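This protein record is not my work; I was only asked to verify it. The record follows directly below this note.
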Amino acid sequence: MGKGPIFALLGIFVCAASIGSYYVHHQPVSLQGPRIGVVRLQEVVEKHPNFHSYDEQKKELLRLEAQRDREDELLKSKLGTEVGKSEEHLKQLESNLTESLNQELQTKIALREAELNQELAAKQRELIEQYRKNYKVEPSEADIEIVNLQLWLTTEMKVKPIDEEQRKRWDTLKAEKEQRLSDLLAQRSHRINGSQQWKDLEAKVAEAMVPAQTEAQQKLSAYATEQAKALGAQRDQSMKGLVDSQQEVLAKVHREGTTLWDAEWEQRLAQKRDEVQALHDAILEDIRVRAGVLARAKQLDLVLVDHITDRTDMDLTEEIIQSYGQ
């Protein structure tokens, strides 16, 4: 879930009314324009101590709304023959959920692999600089590109592609890099000066990189296992909720009908919306107060939200965040 939608209308928030009253009787008349401060509201909101609670309540509200929609669809369907259709629908939901979570898993693994590859590349550059001093050889751009291509082909392309289209793209990219490496190696074989020294340096770097590559692969495997387990548990929990929800709905329809069901859900959702709105308003009011205190201390005439111009004198964002003890 995006973290900012409910705050989308807050971009027009201006502290001028509350702040200006502090100065109307205390500031001398000046020909200069007003002193303006700015607050990057979304950053402050996400750092607020109560934002996690708000975010969780918002997710819970969305979950309840989705659950109500599912149950509403079940209530609209006919009992009896529709029960079988509901079971098929659950199977399809499980299949779709599994596919979605698998894609999420592959995305997380790919991102983690990219992070590890950046660490390996930095380690490789460090080793090249270290050994180059011993060999007293300056690598050409082609030499450096060769090493980078070799590292890429060694460490990349190990994540299972999400679909056939992605596999084809990766195969094409791998073929291009292999061809480029082959061309560079062929060109280098004709060079004489420093060629053998650079090959020796390459060999030492490759040997020294083995432990780091092994460690990176172990980290990636452990991360993949951990994420797969977590997402699998999430799928099982979601499916259990769907099954339980369906069973409860079918029983409720037999007992009471839809009128009472609608009233109960409206009351339940209204209560949750009130909780979310209360947290939302409390966070925003706290930010307004803190911005006002800072503006008064810094003798600002106006504080704007997300409106940075050449007239802006001071950004209060970080100071507000620091006031939370973060």
The first strand starts at residue 36 and ends at 39.
